[in-house]
Design goal:
The complex is a heterodimer. Helix content of chain A is 76%, strand content 1%. Chain A is mainly alpha-helical. Chain A folds into two domains: 33 residues; 236 residues, MetI-like (MetI-like fold). Chain B is mainly α. Chain B folds into two domains: 52 residues, no CATH class; 221 residues, MetI-like fold. Chain B is globular and about 75 Å long. Classes of the chains: A mainly alpha, B mainly alpha. At the A-B interface, helix 1, helix 3, helix 4, helix 5 and helix 8 of A face helix 1, helix 4, helix 5, helix 6 and helix 7 of B.
């Protein structure tokens, strides 16, 4: 090897080192927050799930005891069932509803499209607390508009205590959740419809495809990545549904709106059982990871 | 014949979507009109669609109300000071600081992830994506204990720090920075500019629209980040407007006029921000999804 090329490789090594150092310097401020307050707590969630942990004393190692207790905790199973019901109902409804709305409003003039997009996004911006408060009023037993409208239209005989009745409470929660979760998918679908290759659609129309065929055969496949993304975020969103339950029903009546998210919160803040709550967090994370993986797999196959 | 059918179909759809839009607007209408209604209108069994009288009673009530905090940690009970304005100040401070810190850290990190080749890049990026896929509520207990250990519990910073650590901003700006030609960065380096100069003078101006999207997104999301506020803040003077209203609701659960006044105070400012910056916001949502 000549001296020259040795020098060259030394210099390139030097460059690589320099690139690494500068990259990490740029990353450093973010990494402090990310590692310290996202990754470390994630690790601690897993770690503490093997301990009997509470306030004001040292954690006691108990192995898989928390997980064993979870398996035998009827409230946990109810919470898991309710959580899955919320996800199974709200995810497909959100996706189909927002796709439909997006196809309609994307045909309108620009100004109308953005006005409608804005309106459907409003419940998200309004914030979970304000939204929950107004729905609580609308569902109210005595002066809520739902009982008034229902009675006036002859749908119900007497006022229903919507949120206090185990039969209806979860349905009410899902309805509110739906209004706060379609905003983002609509924005995404409108932009996806905008980005569809117009020449392909025109070619299909020239070949005599009906609008329905043009949509399902040409546009839909091109929007698959968007749909996949929407599926994933809507699933996570539905799992996260917390404020509604905390503010409206606190998991009641008779645990009919108890979800994993709320049960974790309940264990942490009412019972101070940190280890037990963390074990539930781990289970929840595993469920979400599996669901996301399945969704990705399905999306890629198509 | 064939072309007539769809137009009727779409006509019906337009009407349906318009009706749906009205029903999406209704809660907001109900909050705002409700906050100006007299008590009789609010507890009327027949809904009063338009207030018979517009009054400020509810707002006066909200500002003068002395309410004990619903929230207690251990034997700790918060003071009973009325604080709607203090809550607003806290919320603006929290959202603005979260926004500034997130934009700063995310634009630097996003640039590095998009334009630099370094060891551990793939691992770091997969960690970021994995973290984003988890509901952040999963880490609530460890985060709470960590904040207590750092003596940040019941301090507004305890709600800011986790927002800054949340990797969505980095992801967004990385996506945006990848669209900028690498030649720009290289040309700069050949001209002898320092790394920092390359970033501030060349890269930053080009990723500005991305940073704008990140800013508005972070601002609105932290304003409404009720969950983090709920677990981290407890005393009345440290609460945010959402949390304060939620707490007040626990005390006066049937005084809907008062609660609507609080809800209006919590939501109208952020809705105005949203409408003003709507364009950036929409961009942020769609940008984060590209290549998801």
């Amino acid at each position: 090897m000549s001296d020259k090329s040795k020098l060259g490789s030394l210099r390139s090594n030097n460059l690589v080192l320099q690139e690494n150092v500068s990259a990490y310097l740029f990353l450093l401020p973010f990494l402090i927050f990310f590692v310290g307050f996202v990754l470390y707590p994630m690790f601690m969630c897993l770690f503490t799930s093997f301990f009997d942990a509470t306030m004001g004393r040292k954690d006691i190692f108990i192995g898989f005891q928390n997980y064993k207790e979870l398996a035998n905790d009827p409230v946990f199973w109810v919470a898991l069932r309710n959580t899955l019901v919320i996800v199974v109902v709200s995810v497909p409804v959100t996706c189909i509803f927002s796709l439909w709305v997006a196809t309609i409003i994307s045909r309108m003039p620009m100004a109308a499209t953005s006005a409608f997009r804005c309106i459907f996004y409003l419940p998200v911006v309004t914030g979970s607390v304000a939204v929950t408060m107004v729905w609580k009023w609308m569902f109210n037993n005595y002066y809520g508009i739902f009982n008034y409208l229902g009675q006036n239209m002859g749908l119900i005989d007497k006022p229903i205590n919507w949120l206090g009745n185990p039969k209806y409470a979860l349905g009410c929660i899902i309805l509110i959740l739906l209004t706060t979760s379609v905003g983002q998918p609509i924005v995404l679908y409108v932009s996806a419809l905008d980005n569809v290759d117009k020449s392909l659609v025109e070619a299909a129309e020239v070949d005599g495809a009906t609008p329905m065929q043009a949509f399902w055969r040409v546009k839909w496949p091109q929007m698959m990545p968007t749909t996949l993304y929407i599926l994933v975020i809507t699933t996570i969103n539905s799992f996260q549904c917390f404020a509604l339950i905390q503010l409206l029903t606190s998991g009641g009546p008779k645990n009919s709106t108890m979800t994993i998210m709320y049960y974790i919160y309940y264990n942490a803040f009412k019972l101070y059982r940190y280890g037990y709550g963390n074990a539930m967090g781990v289970i929840l994370a595993i469920i979400i990871a599996i669901l996301s993986a399945v969704q990705f797999k399905l999306g890629q196959e198509k | 014949m064939n072309s007539k059918k769809p137009s009727i179909y779409y006509f019906i759809c337009y009407i349906l979507v318009a009706l749906l839009a009205l029903s999406f607007l209704f809660p907001l209408y109900w909050i705002i009109t409700g906050s100006f209604k007299v008590k009789a209108d609010i507890i009327s069994k027949t809904p009063v669609w338009i207030p018979t009288q517009w009054v400020l009673d509810n707002y006066q009530n909200l500002l003068s109300k002395r309410s004990a905090p619903l929230f207690q940690i251990g034997s700790w009970v918060g003071p009973t000071i009325p604080a709607a304005f203090r809550w607003l100040i806290n919320t603006v401070f929290m959202s603005a600081v979260s926004m500034l810190l997130t934009c700063l850290t995310a634009s630097m990190a996003g640039y590095a992830l998009a334009k630099k080749r370094f060891y551990g890049r793939t691992i770091l990026f997969s960690l970021i994506v994995a973290a984003m896929a988890l509901p952040k509520q999963v880490i609530l207990i460890p985060l709470l204990r960590e904040m207590s250990a750092l003596h940040l519990y019941d301090h507004i910073w305890a709600t800011i720090i986790p927002i800054v650590g949340w990797p969505f901003g980095v992801f967004l700006i990385k996506q945006f920075a990848e669209g900028i030609p690498t030649e720009m960065v290289e040309a700069c380096r050949i001209d002898g500019a320092s790394e920092w100069r390359t970033f501030t003078d060349v890269m930053f101006p080009m990723i500005k629209p991305g940073v704008g999207a990140c800013a508005i997104f972070t601002f609105i999301n932290s304003w409404n980040d009720y969950f983090m506020q709920l677990i981290m803040l407890s005393s009345t003077q440290n609460q945010t407007i959402s949390l304060g209203i939620a707490t007040m609701q626990g005390e006066n659960s049937t005084d809907f006029g008062l609660i609507m006044a609080g809800s209006a105070l919590a939501s109208v400012p952020i809705i105005i921000v949203f409408i003003v910056f709507q364009k950036y916001f929409t961009k942020g949502i769609t940008m984060g999804a590209v290549k998801g």
